[in-house]
Amino acid sequence: MLFSSITFLFYFLPAFLLLYYLTPVKFRNYSLLLGSIVFYSWGGPVFIFVILCTTAIDYLLVKQIEKANTKTRKKQFLYLSLVLNLGILFCFKYLQFFVENVNTLLGWANITGISIPDIVLPIGISFFTFESLTYVIDVYRGEQRTLSSFGNYLTYILMFPKLIAGPIIPYNKIGSQIESERMVLAADRLKGFMRFIFGLSKKVLIANILGETVAHIYKNDLVNMDSSLAWIVSIAYTMQLYFDFSGYSDMAIGLGQMFGFRIPENFNFPYISRSITEFWKRWHISLGNWMRNYLYIPLGGNRAGKYATYINLWIVFLISGFWHGAGWNYVIWGAFHGFFLVMERLFLQKYLKNGLGMFYVFFVANIGWVFFKNEDLNIAFQVLQHMFSFQFTSSFSLEPRFVLVLLLALIFAFIGAIKPVEEQIQNEDLLFFKNGFRLATVYTICVVCFLLSASYLLAEGFNPFIYFRF
Asked: Taking the CB of residue 292, how many other CB atoms lie within 10 A of it?
């Protein structure tokens, strides 16, 4: 069930909010858990049992980690949990990819390939697997105690605002919130509602409209596109991806606030970055933090010399690429970003000042997203060839609506470069509670945006979510 769907907006969410607010505070976790099970079961009724079973086993293993008297014993239970979580992720997400590549090698040797049935990917498996790992590893390290009950742990894993697309919230960032009796003030509900509408508008009124034209161009104009059209579709996809995913993160944060949770920010104007290093501190922040704390630092980080640092960066970004999908295009995309991170540490960083740095980041990101979008590498290289052929021959027309939305997307993506704007947006008090006129104005804008979004969803059938398959 997508947040940006009629079913969620007009049926599930109102019913859940009524149930949640009518439930006594000390029992609200049960309401949240019930709602989360229904939410996930809507799109994957079989897989909810997979999550429930693995979560139960994981909970018991982590209890044993905490109880174990020796480090060896702790490691044994840690490895069992890692095998459980990563094994399930591998079987559902990567097994078919590996079999296909093995079959390709066997085919070169004229050997009959391996046959396996098609595997359906559970929604959001990469997100809740990484969250399970944070809980296991934090308890193993002694940084956190286990949650007091299985119900609370299940609530942590299944909490629907962040279940299928993040943000990836470490156990140590939200465990105390789950175990406390959360009082939700009227101001929190209003702020959360506004944040949700803000994200919904980004997703529906910007990402969807851009995505329609991007899909149409890829389907109908791929062979005959010239450089100008290739760059337009590349930039449009760059904006579509940003507003799609950041919009979904905004909706998750807003929902969490309406339920009394503080969910960490996941995006912070990534395209105003002056380097790829900075970009990864602003883009998908929760994944970057996870990779740093649970992969890069355990590998040695930058503590073992510069060459080891470069290797660690490459490993982290190869895995980051592979985390996004079982395809060589994701591996190339991860290696591509890893290359620029290493180059920046070697010499490039000192040349990236002011506007030049932003231009460089946007240029590199655009090229990377071409690989990210196209699992068929032939299509990716075909688009890149068009982009850099510098041939401006074809005639094409773009819908005025698309052109307007693309311009607005570029403005909103870069408006954070104006320092006072970025500072005010990061200040929650901007959200309008300083005076009644500002509150009324923003509330009116939210209502209008909601009505426009709902109208679009009712009138149009195009409502993809790019990160749904991750």
From this structure: 15
What pLDDT score does 423 carry?
61
Q: Write b or e for each residue in 88-125: b if 16 or more Cβ atoms lie within 10 A of its Cβ, otherwise e.
A: bbeebbeebbeeeeebeeeeeeeeeeeeeeeeebbbbb
d(CA 88, CA 208): 32
At CB < 8 A and 24+ separation, what contacts does 213-218 make?
Answer: 213/398, 213/399, 213/402, 214/240, 215/462, 218/379
Token pair belonging to 57: 């086993």
93 to each of 90, 100, 123, how far by Cα in Å? 5, 13, 11
Alpha helices in 142-226 (DSSP H): 150-158, 160-163, 171-179, 186-201, 209-220
* pLDDT band at residue 398 under the 50/70/90 scheme: confident
Residue 274 and residue 7: Cα distance in Å, rounded?
A: 41
Exposure string for 298-323, b = 16+ CB within 10 A, e = fewer:
eeeeeeeeeeebbbbbbbbbbebbbb
The torsion defined by the Cα of 53, 55, 60 and 63, in degrees rounded to 10, comes to: 180
Per the confidence metrics, is the pTM higher than 0.90?
A: yes
pLDDT category at 427 given cuts 50, 70, 90 is: low
Cis peptide before 170 (omega within 30 of 0): no
Which sequence positions are flagged as catalytic? Answer: 324
